[in-house]
């Protein structure tokens, strides 16, 4: 059984544009706690600093909050840097998963924040679908 830690808030608040998979530099006790699902990625975000990408505000149970360096190739970092500067995208972590070799990986997306009217449309659409399901269940 594969364990994944998912950021559910990200799908609601952001429009995803481009996906990248990055490795994480973690200590032994941190990786043990991540395997036991004792961490929270919902408020985490990534920042580019001196040609490196860091994961910030990633909470692991009983560990200090620290900057976690992401392992990406130079080409990917340059591509991300150009897109962030030119088109004002943000880097959002969405999922922590394990590779076939057993290493922890982080799925990040270049994304744009949804506008308020987009969120309202989304909520209306979701409510209509929910009401249709309830009516079908009631009448059939």
Kindly describe this structure.
The chain is an alpha+beta fold and 140 residues long. It has a single domain, classed as Beta Barrel (Small Protein B, Chain: A). It is 37% helix and 36% strand. It has helices at 8-13, 28-35, 74-87, 116-139; strands at residues 5-6, 14-24, 39-40, 45-49, 52-56, 59-60, 68-71, 90-98, 104-113. The strands form 2 sheets. A 7-stranded antiparallel beta sheet has the order 1-8-9-2-7-5-4. A two-stranded antiparallel ribbon has the order 3-6. β8 and β9 (104-113) form a beta hairpin. The N and C termini lie far apart (37 Å). The model has no long low-confidence stretch (mean pLDDT 92).
Mean pLDDT: 92
Q: Could you name the CATH homologous superfamily? A: Small protein B
Q: Tell me about the largest β-sheet.
A: 7 strands, antiparallel
Give the strand content. Answer: 35-45%
Our count of helices gives: 4
* Shape assignment: globular
CATH top level assignment: Mainly Beta
Low-confidence sequence ranges? none
CATH topology: Small Protein B, Chain: A
Helix content percent band: 25-40%
What structural class do the secondary elements suggest? alpha+beta
Q: Termini, distance in Å?
A: 37 Å
CATH architecture: Beta Barrel
The sequence of SSEs as H and E is EHEHEEEEEHEEH
The Rg value, from CA coordinates, equals: 18 Å
| Spatial arrangement of strands, main beta sheet | 1-8-9-2-7-5-4
């Amino acid at each position: 059984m594969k364990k994944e830690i998912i950021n559910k808030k990200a799908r609601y608040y952001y429009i995803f544009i481009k996906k990248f998979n990055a490795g994480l530099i973690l200590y032994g006790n941190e990786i043990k706690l991540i395997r036991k699902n004792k961490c929270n990625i919902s408020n985490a975000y990534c920042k580019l600093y001196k040609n490196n990408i860091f994961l910030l505000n990633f909470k692991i149970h009983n560990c200090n909050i620290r900057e976690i360096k992401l392992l990406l190739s130079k080409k990917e970092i340059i591509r991300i840097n150009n897109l962030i500067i030119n088109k004002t995208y943000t880097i959002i972590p969405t999922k922590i998963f394990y590779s076939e070799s057993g290493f922890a990986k982080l799925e990040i997306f270049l994304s744009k924040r949804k506008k308020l009217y987009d969120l309202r449309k989304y909520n209306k659409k979701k409510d209509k679908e929910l009401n249709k399901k309830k009516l079908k269940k009631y009448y059939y």
